Amino acid sequence: MTDSFVPHLQERVRRAQAAATPLVIHGGNTKSFYGAKTIGEAVDMRAYSGIIAYQPRELVLTVRAGTPLAEIEAAMATEMQILPFEPPHFGAGATIGGSVAAGLSGPRRPYTGAVRDFVLGTRIVNGKGEDLHFGGRVIKNVAGYDVSRLMTGAMGTLGVLLDISFKVLPKPARETTLRYEMDQATAIQRFNEWAGKPLPLSATCWDNGVAMVRLSGTLAGVEAARKKLGGEVVEQTQAATFWASVRDHSHPFFENGAAPLWRLSVPATTPVLALPSTPLPSTPVPSTPLIEWGGALRWLRADAQSNSHANAQADTLRQQIAAVGGHATLMRAGTNGVVGHPVFHPLTGKLAELNRNLKAAFDPANVLNRGRMDSF
Q: How far apart are CA 99 and CA 88, in angstroms?
């Protein structure tokens, strides 16, 4: 099936371009909630699956886009290696192509790097039906590396991902999670203080008065850091479940589906912000943000009293976040929430022009995931 998949895909794209009819690229659909809605003929990438080459000693992995994340992680586990950006699954059917297209990273991101930092090369079919290769399978081959990075987070609007090569890393010899009780301001301060010290941090999270810190590294390094930082050691299985719940949004904070969920990216040292919020189902008082990435990522369940109220609140929130040098993404609109508001922080000036030019170069007829990125 994989031998005939690419020629067949190329022909479908060419027909779509000629007829100016859109195509909706998807894998396991675990991230279909993310981005603006798009319509068109579905292109299911799950048939294009499998590990093409895995060289554990070289720390390089090449896979087809439709390969399930779980399959990749299982293969790497036998070699004691990991995808360093800790990709969110959001469901059992998550594929590696969807992970790269969405450009989302998990709790480990600020301490090891984002998705794009580990993409060595890609193969795509663009909006003209052309089979294109960028980058390579080895770290020292940097030809076209930036073009490969463009595919990360493009939501399939620049090309259909086929093959992807990654740099991978060894699994840490030891991981320990520490728990503290502290308020939001103290957590932001501590996270930033600890980030400036030679500590083996690999994840931080604060929610509802509790801070969690994960340490990853050598046995000696993690133990020394544990003694230095104090805190309550969390049982290993419990800790793994917690970090997976934050990564995949199964943590109780994310359960209120009626309210819009905002992803706020701000400078890590940004102090506590007076943000709108809505009560969680289990608590009688308004919730505060869930904070990740040492203070740089703040999740907010905004109020959803009405669509008009939510839309006005969205404008105010974006202005507030932009004022501190950040941007706000509407991760989930919520069943009673924002309607017709841009998912992604609106681009202006040269950056908006650059994005339009890239879209015109890769997909001039705008057939690939039309509308998914709002501005295309």
A: 7
CA distances from 111 to 85, 226, 301 (A): 9, 17, 26
Tell me how far apart the alpha carbons of residues 199 and 235 are, in angstroms, rounded to a whole number: 20
* Domain spans in the chain, listed from the N-terminal domain onward: 2-170, 174-247, 252-332
Q: Find tokens 């809505």 and name the residue.
A: 278
The CA distance from 241 to 6, in Å, is 38
Q: Is residue 281 scored above 60 in pLDDT?
A: no
Rounded to an integer, what distance in angstroms lies between the CA atom of residue 324 and that of residue 320? 7
Q: Is the pLDDT of residue 268 over 50?
A: yes
Give me the CATH code for the 2-170 domain, please.
3.30.465.10
Position 86: which residue type? E
CATH class of 174-247: alpha beta
Average pLDDT over residues 37-41: 88
Tell me the per-residue pLDDT of 107-143, one tens digit each, with 9 for 90 and over: 999 999 999 999 999 999 999 999 999 886 544 444 4
